[in-house]
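hi!! sorry for the late reply, been swamped w classes. u asked for the two structures so here they r. pasted raw, havent cleaned anything up. first the sequence of the first protein and right below it the tokens
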Amino acid sequence: MTIRLANADARRVFLAKQGLCRPRGALSKAGLLELIETIGFVQVDSIATVERAHHHILFARNPSYKREHLTALLEADGALFEHWTHDAAIIPTAFFPQWKHRFARARETLAARWRSWHENGFETYVDHVLERVRREGPLMARDFEQDPAAGPRPPGGWWNWHPEKTALEYHWRTGALAIAGREGFQKRYDLTERVIPAPHRVPEMTGEAFIDWACTSALERLGFATSGEIAAFWDLVTPEEAKGWVAANLDRLEPVLIEGVAGKPRPSHAFAGSAALFDSLPAPPARLRVLSPFDPLLRDRARAERLFGFNYRIEVFVPAEKRVYGYYVFPILEGDRMVGRIDMKADRKAGSLDVRRLWLEPGVRASAGRLAALDAELARLGRFAGVERTVYLDGWRGE
């Protein structure tokens, strides 16, 4: 039997699975870990136009979120670690064994670059950097500046990084090093065995067991998905492996038709018996929330557009003259609807959150109640970002 999920129900399910239907109550450190385990990962990004992405993502789910709890879980408790999903992310350390597959894949994909680096003497840097970290403990890239022991520098590596930074990233992406913490946004690298607690440094699952873990855990966090969406969630398995997993597990799954805002319903998969679970999930709070541009609700842009009718792109890397909205524009969620986007920046010297422009989606009215709700949300977000007041700049309504 095929379940047909109305668009409003599909939005509710996905919002709940992504932690956006939770009550506001005080969020403890243990509660924060549970939240991150529930949604799977939190993307990390260096841009701090208002607040860095990982902090903003968690704040949007619970305004009582405390940054020091995240730091403790990462740097003291070893309950979280940093690595890659589709991008740099904070991930529960309970999942660390499965990331060994990513380490192995990174070693393969970096092999061609490694050969060209080797010809330029890069191997000396790779060995030297690892030995210094082993001997001295956590180090940052800047600790290797003008390091005479490494010898003459070969040409830079990725993104024109200096060779030592490239070597540190190579060892991190291939598993020899882990992130022990950050100063500002600069990584401190240490040996993996000194960062990841021993219970999580067990051998990884292999073969079908690994694919089953990756696909099962992805579908649990998506609620419903195509095989391509399952593969893309962690970016640990290929689309072909996810498609094979679906075919091999039809007895555990049931077909669902997901109604979008427009167009034909999209055939997807859910776990058998999901209808009752979907019915039990809470509705999102009606309040208005400003999301991070990197919020996991919008990570899969095509899925977000189907479910919410919201066409959203980050324009950081788009030339200024070709941007439709702006450099770093924040999506606005109200209840289960994406109602607009806002261009703003925290001016910490002046103590203000400066609103440059607001765009509401077609059919969304700029009612007094909605604008008051936006003002209240901006005040909350501003306090979280460390500024005292909201300043609406000339032309912010598009006049």
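now the second protein. again sequence first, tokens right under
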Amino acid sequence: MKLKLLFLFILFYINSNAQQPTASKQVSSFSIEIPQLKTVKKIWVYLPKEYATSTQKYPVIYMHDAQNLFDVTTSYAGEWNIDETLDSINAKVIVIGIENKEKRMEELTPFKHSKYGGGKADEYLDFIVNNLKPKVDATYRTKTNAKNTAIIGSSLGGLFSFYAAIKYPKVFGKVGCFSPAFWFNRNEINDVLDQTKDFNTKIYFLCGDDEGDADVIPDMKNVVHWVNTKRCECKKLNKEVIVKGGKHNEKLWRESFKKAYLWLF
């Protein structure tokens, strides 16, 4: 019995270590200091296949949870396959992925929650706008205006991405708001919406109907309704998608990314 258990353990160890990195050759990384949060972050960069042989400039997508975007060996529960998906459609876009790990809840939430804490999104957002984006624009051939700058995230990252567009509409012209955790700052976000006058950002709202939280859909619909009151629906600046059977996980976001990208761009 002991030998059998030992064999199973060795087999599990070999299989777990046999997993190879899945990020494509177009994905690289660098580290950058975040003075606002007194920390250093790893930034992942995806460049389109033609980048090295081209002289043109490209739109940029800023995404959160970079550890889950490109490589299965660094992901928490499966990767999003961002590089493979964009390669498959010959997408002409640069993706900047920002890792969010131990301090994820603090970094991605605009206001402090009475139970869970958090509330340092303004500092994280200031870093993206005033430190990271200038570095990216100086290093790579980018189209720098809001029309060509998107921000995409899921769960708390969806909440943050929407908030980022509210705070900096002249920086982020497109948003991917996946399974947004509006519940975390529901009242505060409603207050922010009440104070916001003009809002012309293009937004792709997405969630599943089986996310395990009954408030995900009504919270998202509340925000969608607010967005629709700010501009004529005829402009087609937002899209609402509710996936049947969709759960709150990487599978939903991975399978939805392509459609979101094609609609936004």
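hope this helps!! also noticed smth abt the second:
The radius of gyration is 19 Å.
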